[in-house]
Design brief:
Chain A has 17 helices and no strands. By secondary structure, chain A is mostly helical. The two termini of chain A are about 40 Å apart. Chain B has one domain. The chains are: A mainly alpha, B mainly alpha.
């Protein structure tokens, strides 16, 4: 506990700060059970502290005890209905429960109280990204960067958003690199970079970053899945399919563009003099491509079973 | 500093305008099918099966109020599409050879099916993306989907023959007796 942080505070406030500092230590160590115990003890001393209720709600959500989390969110909001932190936690809780519309209302209310809160701007941006409102997600995360320019999570989130938008210009890779620059040992930065690489025709680099993210946090299920996916696309049976899908995803109409063009070509090739001699080859090529796209996934899945990801 | 960091500060009122609706909540997802895959299958099995799959999928995606409009739209749309394409092929393009007419008619129906499917499946594509984002269990078209495709395809074959017979009877002049 730092003496500077509590200097000049009343005994009661010092006790609160001390509780939050202890909780932060347990959260950093991913000991949510101990964080919960500390907060419950803290609530015995300060039963009407809205921030303690809100913090406990966050911890209970991590422990997947959502009903209890909701009751503490309700209690914190009853104690401080306009408190930005309590509103932020309410948004987080509703978002985790899939009630995105309500989560948005809480985030908006929190930002009306404090428009400079980078954490709430980020959380709202993440919600927009999750629900597919990528323009707004980008605006929110970029705004959060104005108030916390070295936030690696914000750069990581922007890398993911730009990658998903599939716009040329290397923005996804640039933000991924910045995220890594600010926090080279962050699992999230490596995961975001892996995601950016996957959408920038760099599957092997993506696998490298996903492997690093997994090394930093081997227990995280999402990271395991990301690494498995990167390894999947790097298998040579799937690589042509990966590149084909990556190219098609940038075309208007995506795979339907290729599909429509091929059908038109197959139908009209015999009627066009300079294509007529190759009509059979065109059809055969299309059939081979179709067969490959059908079998690439199960074939690679089978290969992954025979030679598992290491 | 990246270019995006230097972009003008967005208007706060714009930024704080809510955009989410009930359709953005992730409750009520019941192993949805991939709407893009349905469009793919629709090309081969036709508008009736494709539209029925989209209608059922709207329930799986929690868009329950869209089930009946989609199903009724599919039935009416299939009848109108077959009737208009067949009458055009039989009357307006009567000078084309039979093979070209058949191919053009078939391809027109398939193209319109995929295009219409793409237009009406917008909300489904967004919901499916959300289902993927929240790691909801996803469904496969094999099984119930295949059965609907086979039944829909067979019904469409009979429908095509029936509509062709009606169009011929109504639109083509009968040969004079004697």
């Amino acid at each position: 506990m730092s003496g500077d942080a509590t200097e000049g505070l009343s005994a009661e406030d010092q006790s609160r700060v001390s509780i939050f500092q202890k909780v932060q230590v347990w959260v950093d160590a991913e000991r949510f059970d101990l964080a919960e115990r500390t907060l419950i003890q803290g609530l015995r001393e300060h039963p009407n502290d809205p921030h303690l209720h809100a913090q406990l709600a966050l911890i209970l959500r991590r422990l997947e005890r959502t009903e209890e989390a909701e009751s503490h969110v309700a209690r914190s909001l009853a104690l401080a209905p306009n408190d930005p932190y309590c509103l932020f936690v309410a948004g987080q809780t509703h978002a985790a429960l899939g009630r995105h519309r309500e989560a948005e209302q809480f985030y908006i209310e929190a930002l009306r109280q404090d428009p400079t809160d980078a954490a709430t701007l980020m959380a709202y941006g993440a919600l927009m990204q999750k629900t597919g409102h990528l323009d707004k997600a980008q605006q929110l995360v970029e705004t959060s960067l104005r108030f916390a320019p070295e936030n690696e999570a914000a750069h990581g989130m922007l890398a993911v958003i730009h990658a998903e938008r599939r716009r040329p210009g290397g923005q996804a890779m640039a933000h991924g690199s910045q995220s890594l620059q600010f926090s080279p040992d962050s699992e999230f930065s490596h995961s975001a970079m892996a995601y950016a690489c996957l959408h920038s025709f760099r599957p092997f680099q993506a696998r490298q970053h996903a492997r690093e993210a997994l090394r930093l946090n081997p227990a995280d299920n999402d990271t395991v899945q990301l690494f498995q996916h990167c390894d999947f696309v790097c298998r040579w049976t799937y690589l042509p399919m990966y590149y084909l899908a990556a190219i098609l995803s940038r075309l208007p109409g995506e795979q339907f563009a290729l599909w429509g063009a091929a059908i038109v070509l197959i139908i009209f090739a015999p009627k066009i003099p300079f294509l007529a001699p190759y009509a059979g080859w065109i059809t055969l090529s299309w059939v081979i491509l179709c067969v490959y796209t059908w079998i690439a996934h199960p074939l690679t899945k089978f290969w992954m079973k025979v030679v598992p990801t290491r | 500093m990246s270019r995006s960091d230097r972009s003008p500060m967005p208007d706060l009122d714009d930024l704080l305008r809510p955009v989410l609706s009930e359709d953005d909540d992730s409750g009520e997802l019941d192993r949805p099918w991939n709407p893009r895959m349905i469009l793919f299958w629709s090309f081969f099995v036709g508008p009736l099966a494709g539209g029925t799959l989209l209608a059922i999928n709207s329930r799986r995606l929690g868009l329950k109020d869209r089930f009946w409009p989609l199903l009724i739209g599919t039935i009416v749309g299939t009848l109108v599409l077959y009737a208009s394409v067949m009458s055009a092929m039989i009357t307006a393009f009567a000078d084309w050879d039979a093979d070209t007419r058949r191919t053009t008619g078939r391809m027109t129906i398939r193209a319109v099916t995929v295009l219409a499917g793409w237009l009406v499946s917008g909300p489904q594509r967004r919901r499916y993306r959300l289902a993927e984002a929240v790691d909801a269990p996803l469904g496969t078209l094999w099984g119930l989907g295949t059965l609907i495709c086979i039944v829909g395809f067979v019904i469409e074959l009979f429908l095509a023959v029936g509509i062709a017979a009606i169009v011929v009877k109504l639109l083509l002049p009968l040969p004079e007796a004697g």
